[in-house]
Amino acid sequence: MMGQSGRERTAKAPARVAVTAAGIVSPLGFGSAETLESLRSARDCVTPVMRFSVAQCRCKTAGQIADARLLAGCSKTLRSGRLHRASHMMIHALEEVVMRQPAFEPELTVIGTTSGGMSYGERYYRALNRAGDLRHAPTWIANYPAQKPVLDALAAFGISTPCRVIANACASGTNAIGHAFECVRSGSYQRVLAGGYDALAEMVFVGFDSLQASTPEKCRPFDRHRSGMVLGEGAAVLALENLDLARGRGAPVLAEIIGYGISTDNFHITQPEPSGIGARQAMEMALQTAHVSAADVDYINAHGTATVFNDAAEGKAISALFNGVPVSSTKSMMGHSLGAAGAIEAVVCLLALQHQFLPASINFTTPDDDLALTIVANEPRPAVVSTALSNSFGFGGTNASILMRKFEA
Amino acid sequence: MSLAIAGIGWVTPLGTGIDSVWERLLNGEEASATTISEDFAERVYTVFRVPELAMKGLAHPRLRRASAISRFAAAAGLHALESAGLKLDTQTAERIALIFAISNGGVIYTKRFYREIVSTGAHTASPLLFPETVFNAPASHVAAILGVTGASYTLVGDGAVGIAAINMANELMKNEALDYCLIVGTEEIDWLLCDAYRRWRLLRMAPPIEPYSNQNRGMILSEGAGAVLLARNGVVSIEHAHPGGYFSKRTKAAKILKSILRDLCQTEIDLVISSANGTFIDGAESQALREFIPNALVYTVKPALGESVGAAGLWQVIAAAQALCSAEIPPVLHADSSVSLRLSRSRTPISNAQRAIVLSCGLNQQVAGLRLAIR
Question: Which of residues 142-201 of A touch B (CB under 8 A)?
């Protein structure tokens, strides 16, 4: 028996998995309330990049979090001046969870990221390469490891759980939530923190620009004239808990996570399999895990990066599986926050379920005749939303989908 | 659920191949150190590298432009499948999950890509290099080579990440649609890493790595990969895995190590494969081991193979499995005679050994451990 410190239970029906709290910081705002307000007003939060020079890049914009507010909120006892911006993002997101659910005692933390503390790695390399000032090098190096922002956030709130950091490129956040869901569903753990983070970094920005995956124009997911993505940043954390235990202690259940699918399509390291088979397999697996049919899904928060190839493959997969389900990509409002995206978009789905509306894809002008999709274009709208699907797909052909359901007591 | 080791693959500075590397370790051999330099810096570092000859014969279209880290991973993964006698077809590949354990990732290509940005500007950045900088690039290549279409995860952490990956495998294998989980720990060396670890005061400028010394003179970085194919049956089982934890300060590492050992020592332990590497880790592990299992035989592979960070935990698991199966343990190299632990001082028979603990204390705050048993 491979034990987990007594956490494993004898074989039983899979546990139901509740989301009992969520925390978020993104270009849409700090906290769930500001995020909801931005979603409801379909706010375009993509702005010119000032953090580093983009003069030689095609793309000049990104969804960004202002440092003035991000860095101001942290306690001095955390030596906040030395922490990476990503640590501050994780601390802000986790703080919202802790404030809403102070009695939530996680046993495990699973967080996704794509680039970790890359911007400190960049500073270090630049200083070395240009014989610059290396006095702060130990701080840069100490904050480079991908697990550091997670451990900083846990330490800030006295949480001592082990953590797993998943780096499955842009699917990381959804993979983290999906894996956490499996851990609670199997009964191995009763309470798990899950989410994702990523902070804007020059190297990653230039990388997507070099691939011509990012756009000098507006981000227009699923639009006929889509021309690429814009990057974003942020963090989101969800408290996942055995539903029965959560109800037993009187915790509010914001929603249930009911399904998770993961697939690998092996087509190309940066491009999805054109037929969308990998995306389709992930979505099908999420539906199968949840024992629901495609007809039960009311809203899909698509990966929707607005690149020609991603949207074509995802669009084909969605239209093959679902018949007219409303689809939007909220990346149009805040950019693609890579490893954080799946976690941020899970919170978007949570808000859609709680407040019964469909978030919009903004900048949408012209439907793509090759994609049979029902896009929630430009304006959010009220709707009955009982079940929502969130997709994330990444480099390396990794695909992940989670399915969430409104909780009915 | 019961998990067992069905296959093993090992790519190390002492070469590749389980039997060959193990025999060399038993004979007290250590890897040859080489130097590594950087064109914009004068300082030269000493490292343990995988010999070029060891990687000869590994060819696949996905590896044409891949970095060393992906090549090591592919070689170790394929060896693990081969040692399990597993022939891969579409059906088998669908029943394998893949978990990668990585710390620094594809640092060679990351540096090359960023160097272009710094030196000549963003407009010259290579779209061919960028995808190889992503943490999950090695997993992507290995998934494509093996034809894995299901779950593939890349876990990032420090030296303890390999054990975290085994813990994760335990979760994945609860899905009866899976027969196997291939776990690959992999790392490559670059001058930049050496410089970073030196600035952290964790690196020694030249061998040897002196484990359990009070001086903490530092470690030497190495590279390579370790792969373990987990199944539900096998001679060596993973009897218990602790979920791990983290320490906020180095001085607190011993405390979390003790809590892990307390959990793992519920039964008689014959052997401990420690992660001692000549740094602060050694003292913390010594303290915990002396308190909980002072009589267990202790071995660390790092003086012979170096500190391979993301691959290190898997190397420890492989060493533990090999020790239990071969009923021998290699000598701990370069340990002072005054070390108070019961170290393996020479090639030592352990014919009655039934259980081994693998204790992984990382350099960046993470700690994990597990217990293996031979059936």
Answer: 142, 144-148, 151, 154-155, 160-169, 175, 179, 182-183, 186, 188
Distance between CA atoms of residues A243 and B68, nearest Å:
45
Q: What are residue B33's DSSP bridge partners?
A: B48
Query: CA-CA distance, A238 to A111, in Å (whole number)?
Result: 10
Tell me the two tokens of residue A385: 């939303």
Contact A173, A340 (CB under 8 A): yes
Residues of B in contact with A4 (CB under 8 A): 167, 170, 241, 243
Q: How far is CA A401 from the centre of its chain?
A: 11
Non-local (6+) Cβ contacts of A371 within 8 A are A222, A311, A312, A315, A316, A319
CB within 8 Å: A262 and B152: yes
- The Cα–Cα gap between A35 and A235 comes to 12
Chain centroid, CA A85 distance in Å: 17
Q: Where are the alpha helices (DSSP H) in B57-182?
A: 68-83, 90-94, 107-120, 137-146, 161-172
ipTM above 0.90, yes or no: yes
A51-87 pLDDT, tens digit each: 999 999 999 999 999 999 998 866 545 556 788 999 9
3-state secondary structure of A346: helix
Nearest one of B40, B36, B50, B7 to B305, comparing CA atoms:
B50
Joined together, the tokens standing for residue B305 give 């193979």
Token code pair at residue A369: 């005749």
DSSP code per residue over A209-243: HHTT-B-SS---TTBTT---B-B--EEEEEEEEEH
Beta carbons of A205 and A211 less than 8 angstroms apart: no
Residues of A with Cβ-Cβ distance to B88 under 8 angstroms: none
* Block residue for tokens 């896009």: A375
- The rounded distance, in Å, linking the Cα atoms of A205 and A183 is 34
- What are the tokens at B20? 């060959």
Is A336 in the active site?
yes
Q: Tell me the mean pLDDT per 10 residues along chain A, length 409.
A: 41 90 98 98 98 96 95 63 91 96 97 94 91 90 94 95 97 98 97 98 96 97 98 98 97 98 90 93 97 98 97 97 97 98 98 98 97 97 98 94 95
CB-based contact B310:A165 (threshold 8 Å): no
> Of A263, A267, A346, A341, which is closest to residue A309 (Cα–Cα)?
A267
Establish whether A45 is a catalytic residue: no
Tokens of B164: 């975290």
